[in-house]
Amino acid sequence: MKHVYLAAILCAIAATAVAQPVPSLMSYQGYLTDLAGAPVSDGTFAFTFSLYENASGGPSLWTETQSSVQVRSGLFSVVLGSGNPIALLFDKPLYLG
Q1: pTM of the full structure
Q2: Helix (H, G, I), strand (E, B), or coil: what is residue 12?
Q3: Is the CB of residue 78 less than 8 Å from the CB of residue 56?
């Protein structure tokens, strides 16, 4: 009888864990250019990143601003979700803007 109760408790815990989205982090690297296509000057820039369900139009599902992104020769690297955890399931395609 104790095994039945233990199994029921474990199933309840597992169901609760599966139902909750897990906050996620995602590495992203990019190349920042000016309008002529040349890399921007080295410096620190503010970036706002958003994830969308649609390629164009519609509200964002998640947004984060990183105010101190180091750019060297146009290259930058960030960890998305470090300021605002990404609590999405990633069970469908998402678009980064």
Answers
A1: 0.73
A2: helix
A3: no
